[in-house]
Amino acid sequence: MNASSSAGSLRRRLVLALLAVLVLGGALASAGLYALAFRQQGEVFDERLRALSFNLPVEAMLQMPRSVEDETAEGIVVQIWRRDGVLLWSSGRRPAPISTQIGMVDLEIAGERWRSFTRLVRDDLVLQVSQDLEARERRAAAEALRLLVPLLVLLPVLALVGGWIVSVQLEPLRRLATLVQSRGTDDHAPVVLAQAPRELSPVLASLNDLLSRQAHARRRQREFLADAAHELRTPLAAVRLQAQHAEAARTADERGQALVALRGGVDRATHLVAQLLDLARSEGKAGGGERAEVALDRLAREVVAQRHPLATARGIDLGVEDAQGATVLGEREALASLLGNLVDNAIAYTPAPGRIDVGLRRDGAWADLRVEDTGPGIAPERRAHLFDRFARGGRGDVAGTGLGLAIALRVAHAHGGTIELRDRSDGGSGLCAVVRLPLVSSGSHVLADP
Q: Residue 139 CB: number of other CB atoms within 10 A?
């Protein structure tokens, strides 16, 4: 769903919600207003009965014919009674029930309901003004409904005005969608929306932060591709040259030597490609893979065991020393790659006879994994630069890709840890790489040595 349809959907939902509120509010207001108007009309009719009772000329009415054709349009019937119950005069064909109480009272006779006001004119004469409640309620309802007409007319007007207000208030969203849609794929400049409401500030901040991170990732990707192309050019050129030597060889020995050199060039190119893939994987996943508890002491022994034959062949004593049990939460393969790269670097730059010690210690809530060698070491001012991609240190005659420490650093960061290059703990020649990773908890997770 594109931005415009989403904005339209939001507008539609807001308008419908506003319309529902108006209809519900209008219905409740109408019901309340109707009930209030109906009650007020009843009070008006009561006051009219009372006023009529005190303003009628009773003596003159007694001189008039005893009955008239019909009661008034409001259903009012005037009757004059004698105290002994004899009807002396009535204004309607149908007499209202006689009231035995003085004042306002509700009466019912033959299924008809009446509202009646009675007073004594003199000791032997009673004046009763009555109103048919059915006719009264019809008139009251008509009056109440007439009062509701303005409200019923106002509701559609309010709905139209509300829809217009919603459209105006959602205009910044439409403008934001237009700005984003009009951008090119390489445009990572911050989005600036003029007169943006305060509620859009978090959206703009998040969007600009995303664009900034995308720009940074695109820049790193381009740098990575440029560096990778540059680094691959040399081994591929060497492979091509060695293949040409093999083709030009005149004897079996020359061809064999050329093939051995060719195989070595292919191995170096394969190793470089593998490390490039590891680096891309470590940057792409950023620790987002499935994690589990990893026993670092066991992992260290496995990594050392895998590389022990290579170290022995180079005259290097590689082993695990002082490995305390420690458990971290992480990706086992990534952590193995981290430690393996550190050990591979130490093997590559440690001359024979040499020594490489892998140790593990707990320090509060942290595990310190160290790889210490007896190589030539690295000057302190150059150590931070070694974590850059394709950066190499030490002797220039050592084959390498300059990616091992970059991969290790990204894995450590993805697991909430750090890497630091230090001098040897005993002050001798060499280098000590210390990886600091958070333990599963602040308590000790000591595992028995296998």
A: 17
> What tokens appear for 127 in the block?
């004046």
Helix (H, G, I), strand (E, B) or coil at 311: helix
One-letter amino acid of 19: L
- Per DSSP, the residues of 350-411 read PPSSEEEEEEEEEETTEEEEEEEE-S----HHHHGGGGSTT---S-TTS---S-HHHHHHHH
Average pLDDT over residues 48-52: 88
- For the chain, what is the mean pLDDT? 78
**CA of 224: how far to CAs of 185, 276, 337, 414, in Å?**
19, 9, 20, 19
Per DSSP, the three-state class of 109 is strand
CA 207, 208, 212, 215 torsion-angle sign: positive
**Beta strand residue intervals within 402-450, DSSP E:** 418-422, 432-438
Integer Cα distance of 277 and 333 in angstroms: 14
| Residue 4 predicted with pLDDT over 50 | no
Please tell me the predicted confidence (pLDDT) of residue 287: 47
The more confident residue out of 257 and 436 is 436
Question: Do the strands 103-109 and 112-122 form a parallel or antiparallel pair, or are they unpaired?
Answer: antiparallel
In sequence order, what are the beta bridge partners of 104? Answer: 117
In terms of average pLDDT, the best of 140-144, 147-151, 367-371 is: 367-371
DSSP 133-171: HHHHHHHHHHHHHHHHHHHHHHHHHHHHHHHHHHHHHTH
Measured N-to-C along each axis, helices 332-349 and 252-285 cross at an angle, to the nearest 10 degrees, of: 140
- Classify residue 374 by burial, with Cβ atoms within 10 Å: 0-12, 13-18, 19+: buried
Residue 369 φ then ψ, to 5°: -105, 120
Q: Is the pLDDT assigned to residue 437 strictly greater than 90?
A: yes
Q: What is the DSSP letter of 1?
A: -
Residue 237 or residue 366, greater confidence = 366
CA distance 91 to 355: 129
Q: Which of 98, 96, 165 is nearest to 133 (CA)?
A: 96
Residue 176 scores a pLDDT above 60: yes
Which residue is associated with the tokens 């994987």? Answer: 281
Q: Which residues contact 155 (CB under 8 A, 6 or more apart)?
A: 22, 23, 26
How is residue 16 written in tokens? 């419908």
Determine which of 68-77, 238-247, 286-295 has the lowest per-residue pLDDT on average. 68-77
